């Protein structure tokens, strides 16, 4: 998914590089060549063109034709089976548009073209939601199974169909239980599974927090991200426990932090954050008071 919800080559991109907790590292990813460019119709008015379908491999056919057989002589079931089979064939054609030449998956270049054809920026929340519905295990990659199961899950087998599903998917992501699932998925999605990573690099976590809270931004989010950017605790990675508990934190702790208690079972990083934020606010208030007094004194001198 290009520049954002992906495993990017450029470490200074939106999501930066991925590293383990307390240990930074980077991993370059060479782009693979695309199979062929397609000029096709899409929801955003792109020019149409014929889809070239080269012979389907046996492995492809096994996935694309995995439909329950209809009972002999059952016209209704035969009809349903035919419709489902046609849909799977269209999903297969769509998958092959973006599939890598050497690997049976859609990789970075294919993802960029896929996002472009969907008329979405790779940094959009929509892309994360789509990856969630596809249950993608790795950034910048859709395996054949993920793509097929994902398209069936959202009931879409074309670019137009996927675009038409975005409004309902965004609405679904607003529901409390669904958002919790999306939120937990986002942490796993951000990990580098190939390296067995167990925590998110701080910069990756910051970018993903901004992204996942696109529709329901908690009042304390900006202060939390400011704290992480300033990094007074020197932390380099965010653990799964810290990530998951932050959602609870935003739901029970007020924006003034007055109901926060260190006696509760919060991660120690939260204690550091609250202490740092309260001190920052105190200094900010003192600065305002001094400025107000100076301004009042200046006004008095001018009147005299």
Q: What labels would you give this structure?
A:
single chain, mainly alpha, disordered N terminus
What does this structure look like?
The protein is mostly helical. Helices cover 53% and strands 3% of the residues. It is built from eleven helices and four strands; from the N terminus they run ααβααβαααβααβαα. It has helices at residues 58-64, 75-98, 108-117, 125-134, 144-153, 159-172, 176-190, 202-212, 221-230, 240-252, 268-303, and strands at residues 105-106, 142-143, 199-201, 237-239. The strands form two sheets. Strands 1-2 form a two-stranded antiparallel sheet. Helix 2 (75-98) packs across helix 5 (144-153) and helix 4 packs across helix 5 (144-153). The protein is elongated, with a radius of gyration of 25 Å. The chain starts with 57 loop residues before the first helix and ends with a helix.
């Amino acid at each position: 998914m290009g520049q954002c919800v992906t495993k990017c080559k450029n470490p200074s991109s939106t999501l930066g590089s991925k590293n383990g907790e307390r240990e930074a590292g980077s991993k370059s990813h060479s782009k693979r060549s695309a199979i062929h460019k397609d000029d096709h119709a899409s929801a955003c008015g792109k020019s149409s063109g014929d889809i070239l379908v080269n012979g389907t491999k046996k492995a492809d056919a096994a996935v694309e034709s995995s439909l329950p057989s209809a009972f002999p002589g059952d016209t209704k079931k035969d009809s349903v089976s035919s419709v489902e089979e046609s849909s799977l064939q269209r999903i297969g054609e769509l998958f092959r548009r973006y599939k890598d030449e050497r690997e049976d998956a859609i990789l970075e270049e294919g993802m960029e073209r896929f996002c472009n054809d969907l008329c979405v920026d790779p940094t959009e929340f929509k892309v994360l939601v789509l990856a969630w519905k596809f249950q993608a295990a790795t950034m910048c990659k859709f395996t054949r199974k993920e793509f097929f199961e994902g398209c069936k899950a959202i009931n879409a087998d074309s670019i137009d169909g996927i675009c038409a599903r975005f409004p309902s998917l965004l609405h679904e992501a607003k529901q409390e239980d669904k958002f919790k699932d999306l939120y937990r998925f986002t942490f796993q999605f951000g990990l580098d599974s190939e390296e067995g990573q167990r925590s998110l690099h701080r910069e990756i976590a910051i970018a993903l927090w901004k992204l996942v809270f696109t529709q329901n931004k908690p009042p304390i989010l900006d202060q939390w991200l400011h704290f992480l950017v300033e990094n007074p605790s020197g932390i380099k990675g965010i653990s799964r426990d810290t990530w998951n508990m932050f959602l609870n934190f935003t739901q029970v702790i007020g924006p003034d932090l007055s109901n926060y208690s260190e006696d509760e079972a919060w991660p120690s990083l939260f204690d550091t954050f609250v202490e740092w934020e309260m001190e920052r606010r105190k200094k900010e208030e003192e600065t305002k008071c001094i400025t107000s007094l100076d301004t009042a004194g200046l006004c008095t001198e001018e009147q005299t």
